[in-house]
Design goal:
Length: 308
């Protein structure tokens, strides 16, 4: 029996040590929690959005303000996610592959948006780029608008979302170590070739997972964007801000229609996340079942791909 099969047998034995009523109770609690806090709220969003029929639903989404909010949300995500992708990969590579002074401080900075309220992040940008901020007078003199404009929304979104990709890749790269990169370098590969043919195939599923989470947060961000946007209808309102305005004006059907777009985004995100996790687990199982290699041999990325 292979080592992988032995480990699976041990896991199966451990998972069957509890009494059946304990497992059923835990499963019931988990299902009840999911039903109460996930399924019912999602069902309520779609039910309220379609309360007056499909015509009212599509009419709410066809309004110019709704289209402007959708367009601005997509533009913001299209800018913020690639920027965070570049930063996340670079930060993860630096932290996981090298030892240097200030490494712990850099790791702390990566985690900073997780500990700072998004509203505080928005206020920081107002303090820096607002009319009475540190750089505000210079920006006004050169007719450059950041606060209450698209650049401020993009900056706030980048700030609150940049840890997602880096935090997915750092532990993954640390667990993989530097052996394959060092072997590629010894064999004459350049830095770009090492990254493209060795590192990237090893981190592709973690990278995809981080991009999915980053995109979902970028489209759904409310606090920081609310501070820097100015709530100008048709210009600086993203979908979450548009939902808030409609709900405050008692336009519940229109508000829930716009909210249903974010709910659909959440569902699509969960599906893509599940597929990515399934593919990653499948690759791990295939690699675990491969015969052991000779000591000192390094399996090429092409060999790993052909095995899958």
């Amino acid at each position: 029996m292979s080592a992988g099969a032995t480990a699976r047998v041990r896991r199966d034995r451990i998972s069957t040590t509890e009494a059946p009523w304990v497992r059923n109770l835990l499963i019931g609690i988990a299902l009840a929690f999911v039903l109460l806090f996930l399924v019912l709220p999602l069902a309520a969003v779609f039910t309220e959005a379609l309360r007056k029929g499909w015509d009212a639903y599509f009419s709410a989404l066809k309004e110019p303000d709704a289209w402007s909010a959708i367009r601005l949300t997509l533009i913001t995500a299209a800018i913020a996610v690639p920027l965070n992708l570049v930063f996340g990969v670079a930060a993860a590579w630096c932290i996981a592959k090298y030892e240097f002074k200030g490494k712990a401080f850099l790791t702390t900075l990566v985690d900073l948006p997780f500990s700072v309220s998004p509203v505080v992040a928005g206020l920081v940008y107002v303090l820096m780029f607002g009319a009475n901020g540190w750089i505000g007078p210079w920006l006004a003199a050169h007719d450059i608008k950041i606060i209450f404009a698209v650049p401020g929304i993009v900056l706030a979104t980048v700030f609150v979302t940049f840890p997602f990709i880096a935090r997915e890749l750092i532990p993954l790269m640390q667990a993989q170590g530097n052996d394959e990169e060092q072997a590629a370098t010894v064999l004459g590969a350049s830095g770009w070739q090492t990254f493209w043919y060795v590192t990237l195939p090893n981190i592709k599923w973690g990278l995809l997972y981080g991009v999915i989470l980053c995109n979902a947060r970028a489209m759904g961000e409310f606090g920081a964007v609310s501070v820097v946007s100015g709530h100008i209808r048709g210009q600086t309102n993203t979908i979450p801000l548009h939902v808030e305005i409609l709900y405050n004006e008692y336009q519940s059907v229109a508000a829930f229609a716009a909210a249903s777009l974010l709910a659909l985004l959440a569902l699509v995100t969960l599906v893509i996340k599940s597929v990515a996790e399934w593919r990653a687990e499948h690759e791990r199982k295939v690699l675990a079942e491969l015969p052991p290699e000779r000591p000192g041999a390094v399996r090429s990325p092409a060999a790993r791909g052909s095995a899958v």
